[in-house]
Amino acid sequence: PPPILPPPPPPPPPPSLPPPTPRHSRALSILINIPMVMPISEVFRQHHRMHHKTLGEPATDVDVPLPEEVAFVGNNTLLKALWLAFNMILLPLRSMHKLPVHVDAFLVANWVTGLGFGALVGYLAPPSLAFLVLSTLNSQGLHPANARQLQRHIFDGEEGRQDPTVPPTYSYYGPGNWLTVNVGYHQEHHDFPRIPWTRLPQLRRMAGKTWYPDSRAFESRGMGTILNFVFNSKISLADFAH
Prior knowledge:
Number of strands: 2
Strand order of the largest sheet: 1-2
Distance between the termini: 69 Å
Shape: globular
Number of helices: 11
Largest sheet: 2 strands, parallel
Structural class: mainly alpha
């Protein structure tokens, strides 16, 4: 009889995603945060998990606008545009208002490096500091790529998209994900927040459209979403995560 061959060796494990430890991850986040001038990486790390755990809960979900924001902005066109334009400032302030901030060496390093870099750039080249600040504001403001900010959890005026039986979270599966590291796969991210963004398309293929149907996703992402939020009188800040 032919010899019995041993089974093939198992495939090598996938390479570990850098960085290898939480401490390295926090240090890398602080480093990446430096050009943004606004030191937010550590506060975001502390508070974003509560957004996942208590989605839509006004007291603890830091993405849900404060009652004062809702009352002041409402569905006013100009105020909605200004609210979105300065969202990068409002979000961390709201976050620190709702939840305590744990102060440690990483938080101090985040603030010292971010503000120190901003002060240095402002001293050496004030126009460069203005460029960095405006770029940071625009990244979470009226830029077409920030349509994700509006599509993740807020009602877009289309009654058919709402489903009271599931959490108010929406995805986007279009080509814009190629430029934003699959950030459009937001339902998948909320279900499995520890899966890297690069592998969320694979997760959706495994789970199938029964679990992640196209009806819970936006077909497009861009300036049209921004304009709809600003000019659509059916949309107000009170519609976030409801």
